[in-house]
Amino acid sequence: MTLMILHTRNASRRKHLAKAAETAHALGHRAIVVVEEPSWEHEYVDAVYSAPTGDLEATVARCMEIAKEESEPIAGVIAFVEHSVPAAAAVAEALGLPYISPETAAKSRDKLTMREAFETVGVSQPRFALASSVEEAQKAAETIKYPLVMKPIIGGGSMFVRRVDTPEELAEHFGEIQKGAWAGFDYDPLFFLKSRYSEGILLEEFLVGNEISVESYVQDGETTVVAVHDKPTPMDGPFFEETFYATPTVLTGETLEKVKEFTALAHQGLGITQGATHTEFRVSPDGEPYILETGARLGGGPVYQSVLLSTGIDMVEVLTKVSLGEKADVLVNDANARHVGFSLHFGEKPGELAAVDGIDTLEADETVSEVMIYSRIGDLIDVPPRVWQAHGHVIFTAASRAGIIEKQRQVNETLRFQVR
Question: ATP-grasp domain: from which residue to which, for each copy (predicted)?
Fold first, then answer.
């Protein structure tokens, strides 16, 4: 039998592929990847196939061909990158394999439909509206109120997300965000929504508070929350690049219980009955969590490693088992969680990457568990909000949250991207 991984190229997912293949092999299965323009993926799995993954119908057709070419039947389908979730759902449906439905996959990527789904289950969330023009946006802002956040319908990684505080700022920046919200994702299989929404973007109430992310999985319709990361660096705008995560969370009591309750309700609203999820909240100063979004996939590369270091639970192994119909049998013990943090790094300006300083120093530090640079010397790199992925990450441990905060400061002073 064979595990099929639908993939969008992403350098931070190397360990995901390696662990998925290892788990599949332990269960007696092959592991294959389907991706557009394959490159490094060959190092980690049994076979790699090329497919036009930006086109859902073409991807399904190609995967049906691959299923016939494979020496073993396809036993499960998974995706680790959010852009691949709709393709994985469509392929699983075509092959008659368990996965979330294509409708659920679309809801987990279409942020307007997602907001509407959250409304049906009563999860606290910001006020929102769709706007296709400055005039529509200014009209909606009368109800949403300033400050507000503009964001793409199908975006990811805080790319082309911006806060505006006044009607004048809204008028100044609306066109740029609207253009990027679609042109920046023209490779996405849900790009066809551009015409359905008349090139509209999402407007949301800006909520005061700190952000968190929740890593969980669903099996047989039941949600298990595995870990919660805080984002200690204030994310107040105008852009919202994610640069620092720390776990276990400092949230406790009623707030943490409500986060877990809302996560399960979000799954219910979206129709997620199996697989891993990555859910983000803003928590107000009085402890009320407001849901931002839920992705029907694992958190990004460093999130996976951070959860593993902190809890000992391998979420790729869990997802692979769930996808292949095996019981995950995860025991979450919050009392034993280690303090882990990771920082995401960008160049200070766009241009050609000339050097990355500080790698050797960090790798020699026994509290640093991983330094991964995604870009190569000579690559052209850009900066937020025009990129959805950082240029590298560093994962580290400490004996306390205070130690994690201090280590993050040291890492930021040490790792430098030289751009020319």
Answer: 115-324
